[in-house]
Every structure is written in C-alpha cells, then in structure tokens.
Amino acid sequence: MVSKGRESKPHIGIYGRRNNGKSSLINSLAGQDIAIVSDHAGTTTDPVKKSFEITGFGPVILVDTAGIDDSGELGQKRVERTVRTLDIIDLALLIVTENTWGEYEDDLVERFRNHDIPFIIIHNKSDLKEPAEDFRKKIKSITGSDLFEFSAVDRRNYEDLINLIGKTIPEHSYRTPTLLGDLISYGDIVILITPIDVEAPAGRLILPQVQTIRDILDNDAVAIVLKEREVDEFLKRTGIMPALAITDSQVFKKADASIPTEIPLTSFSILLARFKGDFEQYLKGTPRISGLRDGDRVLLLESCTHHVACDDIGRTKIPRWISNFTGKKIDYDVVAGLDLLPRPVIDYSLVIQCGGCMITRKQLHNRLQAAIRAGVPVTNYGMAIAYVQGIYERAIAPFTRAGKASYL
User: Fold this and answer.
1) Is pTM, for the whole model, over 0.70?
2) 164 and 31 in one domain?
3) I need a labelling partner for 86 at 20 to 30 A (CA). Which of 5, 15, 125, 229 fits?
4) More confident residue, 176 or 324
C-alpha cells in the first residue's frame, strides 16, 4: 500500500481503465519519463508514487494506479490496491478515452464522493479521437463536471490542465497550518517536557517534538526543552513562568505535579489531535472509556510502523492503564500504518488513534470515518491517557476555552 508517510505535498491520484494513458499523462505532467508506458494493457501493476514539481504549480506527489478494469484473481488484488489509494489522495484525475464511460467510471466517481475527493475527468488520447459533444453532455449530466480534453502526445491544453489542477485541489492540501499559532504570542516561552527512555530514538527527538519546536520558532516564541526530572529544579532556579507547557503523554502525571496550575498544560499527542484529528469527536468519545465493560474490544490505531519496545505506549501502556482504570477485562487490537482492520469496526467499543505525526490530516480523518459512521466512539492516545490519569480537563483546557476546540 502506498502511504503518504512523511510527504506533506499534495497527492494526485491517476485513475482509469487499462491502456487509457494514465502513465503517459504522468510523464507529460512531469516533463520526463517517470512512469513506464506500453501499448500492452496492464503495464502498471501496483500503485506507484512519484515526487516532482509541476511547472507553474509546485511540488506534488503523483500516484499512478493499476487499471480499474483489471481482471482475474491477481487483477482483482491490483484493483483493491488502487481503491485503497483513495485514503491518501487530495485530488483525483479520472482518465477516459474514445468517448467511453461505464460502470467502472461510475464506481470511481461514487468512491471519490464518498471520500470527499475533488476530481477532474480527462479525455486522454484526444489526438486519436476527440470527445464528441454528446459525450461531453453525458459526462456533465452524470457527474456535474465538465470533461477536459487532453493528449499526452501533443500536450494540447497542457497549461489549462495545470491551472485547473491548481484551482481544484483543496487549499489544505498544500498550505502549512500552525500547531500553536492561536495559543502563543511573540516572545512567549513554551516548555517542552521530553523524556528520554527506551522508546526514544537514539540521537534524535521524535517527530511531534521536532514539529512543535519548529512551530514555536515560526511563531517567534521561545522553546525550552527539558527532561521530566529537570522541570522542578528549572522552574525553581529561573523563576520563569511559561505561557504553555507541553509534555509527552507518558509522563502526564509527573508534568501535572511539576507545572503550576496557573500554567496551561497539554501533551504533544493532544496538540496533534487538535491539529490533525477530529477533535470534536475525540471530545465526545474520550469519556466513553468509563463505560467500557468486560469483554469489550478496543482498537488502537498507530499511524506508522516502528520498532516495538517491551513497554510500548500503544501495545502495552495504554491497554494497561485503561484496564487498571476501568477494572474490566478488555481485549485490545493494534493496527499499524494504514493496514486493514482485523475485524469489522462495529466490533469495537472504542477506537484510540495516535497523534498521527506520520500521516496527513486527510488520511487520519479517512481512517476514523468508518468508526464515526458506525457510531463507535473515537479518541486519541494523549486524551485517553490524560483521562485515565485524572488530568483530562486540564489537558484539553487550552483548546476548549474561548471556542478553540473548533480551531481547525
């Protein structure tokens, strides 16, 4: 499965039947041969992700997919992989040729709409056969969208296509929002509490900590990074009263005891929950932890794959804390990355999503939608930890005061 991973560039998916010129379109947009082109249908077997800059628009990731009409047992698996790319796509280009439209295209358009993905319908190979007027009207009637005429051979309407991509792709796909911009001001001091334990990567900080430091600097504020055992002495010795303190969720209780109550306190994970997640749903779902019963099943969703330590936060600590808090015998499943769930989402009494530092906001929301639609409560690692450790109200207060829960 192609994962958006660390890439924050807009992802544009190319979809259509075999031999409709999807790879040729990619090469035309890139201005270089980055996708294999062949007269033989089915050359592209699995989704392929290519990063480059579209002249006149900017850096993007193009995802070349297998033909939606692939056949046979192996072909069906390729189609399934193609469909799964919809979880990471910001804009879809649906390629048709020879005035042909049918159930494959109807199905794709329905999937685009279900995933809330804007799309452009492109009639490719127009140098061989131009779109007929009645076909244009048919497409408009079925989809509500105009048909765009293109040819990868003579690059007709190339500049217009680039402009259309720029107008159609959602702004949030390429803008850089802020983690803390509405919480801190120029010159504010922010304390970051970052434990260095067996789960900390050797020689570096984890991505949420790095992102937070950068955001503090971007907002012309000051970041002070401390290990949890240094906080008390630092505050006592310097007399500094930070505008905000942000802690690793695993040391929430220690941070709560060390940071004076008049100083707002939250965690990196909750910061990301507000930044990327469905924060309103998290606020509704977190208290449902108290209602868990014997035999309930809880799903923990990690956004990445990583080395699992003996005291892993998602696989060990959160299940232990929740079981101790509720006093109930609960079953837990953990799914890493964007892997498929081991059972239907309706089987779960609660879904707990990590901060999502390795995936995009769209990916994270798509990941949660099945649970939300099914009425399964959702929460976030940091919010769940704060709840079972008795400091939930303090941890979410920086975002729920003055309507800040709806910041994104």
Assistant:
1) no
2) yes
3) 125
4) 324
